[in-house]
Amino acid sequence: MSSLTMRPCGDFRTSYKQDNTIFETKTIRIMAVVAVLLLMTAPLFVDGYFLSLFIQMSYLGIAALGLNILVGYTGQISLGHGAFFGFGAFASAWLNTSMQIPVFLCIPLAGFLTMAVGMMFGMPAARIKGLYLAIATLAAQFIIEDFFARADWFSGGSSGSMAEPINLFGFVFDTDQSFYYIALFAFVFMFIWGCNLIRSRDGRAFVAVRDHYLSAEIMGVKLNKYRLLSFGVSSFYAGIGGALYAHYLGYVSAEGFTIFLSIQFLAMIIIGGLGSVKGTMMGVIFMVLLPEVLAGGVGMMKETTWGNIPMVIDGLAFIKEMTIGLVIILFLIFEPEGLAHRWAQVKNYWKFYPFAH
User: Fold this and answer.
1) Residues 6+ apart with CB under 8 A from 299
2) SS3 assignment, position 151
3) Which end of the chain is more exposed for a tag (fewer CB within 10 A), N or C?
4) What is d(CA 240, CA 161) in angstroms, rounded to the nearest whole number?
5) Comparing C-alpha atoms, which of 123, 329, 146, 158 is closest to residue 252?
6) Radius of gyration of the chain (CA)
7) In a domain, 2, yes or no
């Protein structure tokens, strides 16, 4: 058999370094740089509505990536990610108002504080798995929610807490056009850091724990260490996302960080694809745009004759929650590997065209 027939069709990677590169080809790397440059010019051409959507995608995407590192790459489960997101929001506002620390320093500090809290809850959770782990993280959700309601010194209790806008060298980022650049920088930085983490020794240990923890332990991977580390990294991402959320809105209240938010984060990574950084971005975009599409559909429905029926009017108020649950079920049935897998199949089709494999 000739050497020509032995060559792989469409895949010419010959080293581990090539297999773990962030950008598969030089063309993709150039396209990514061009995309970031184009995004930097977006405030010049895009109105405030679309800028607010991108800002929302940014802080939710950062938090969702942290959850995907925990669930998708390490094989753990967390039903309390929304609470850690809220803790980061309150922590950043508290550090700024109580200790007079500049906001741009409060954001990373809030991430580290949230990381400490996440690892505290992760210590017992690192020794259990499956349903027991889900219940433990659900307990963390309700414990932190109760803490928000009772700790007036930290969260403001039922009154909530004010969060000052970011002030950097005298320039205040208090508009969508200005805060957009903060969100873009944080989004790009945290996603690149996440990609490099997965390529590192610790990232490979996460994947080994997920794929077969007994084999990983035999090879010398310390299970408790990396399970606990994954909880810490996940909480750090949630804290950074929550801090950005707080200083963008200017006000945070405990009512916004319920179990429903944790379910939304899980929906993002399930829809996008577990164990995929690219899938995280896809899932966040899908979940942010879904309510906007639903709002448009509900508005059109209200203008029809169906909109005058009381039963329909009452049902429209809950259509968002019902749709999110339905979307999760449909993806689990028909596309369990998420949008990232579907995108990979589309790419492979054109990559190997016209040969079928």
Assistant:
1) none
2) coil
3) N
4) 17
5) 158
6) 22
7) no
What is the rounded CA–CA span in Å between residue 65 and residue 321?
Answer: 22
Per-residue DSSP letter, 70: I
Q: Which of 321, 267, 243, 229 is nearest to 79 (CA)?
A: 267
DSSP letter, residue 325: H
What range does the domain containing 227 cover?
Answer: 46-352
| Inside any domain, residue 20 | no
Which two structure tokens, joined as six digits, stand for 177? 């056009």
In this model, does residue 245 exceed pLDDT 60?
A: yes
Does residue 25 sit within a domain? no
Task: Judge whether 36 lies within some domain.
Answer: no
Q: How far is CA 67 from the centre of its chain?
A: 6
CATH number at residue 170: 1.10.3470
Q: How many domains does the chain have?
A: 1
Query: Whole-prediction pTM value?
Result: 0.89
* C-alpha to C-alpha distance for 203 and 269, rounded to whole angstroms: 18
Q: In one letter, which amino acid is 47?
A: D
Q: 15 by DSSP, 3-state: which?
A: coil
Q: Report the C-alpha gap between 252 and 245 in whole angstroms.
A: 8
Q: What is the spatial distance between Cα 235 and Cα 144, in angstroms, rounded to a whole number?
A: 13
The pLDDT tens digits of the residues spanning 207-218 come to: 999 888 888 888
C-alpha to C-alpha distance for 192 and 188, rounded to whole angstroms: 6
pLDDT tens digits for range 125-164:
777 777 888 888 899 999 999 999 888 999 888 888 899 9
User: CA 69 to CA 224: how far, in whole Å?
Assistant: 16
- Return the bridge partners of 162, or none: 251
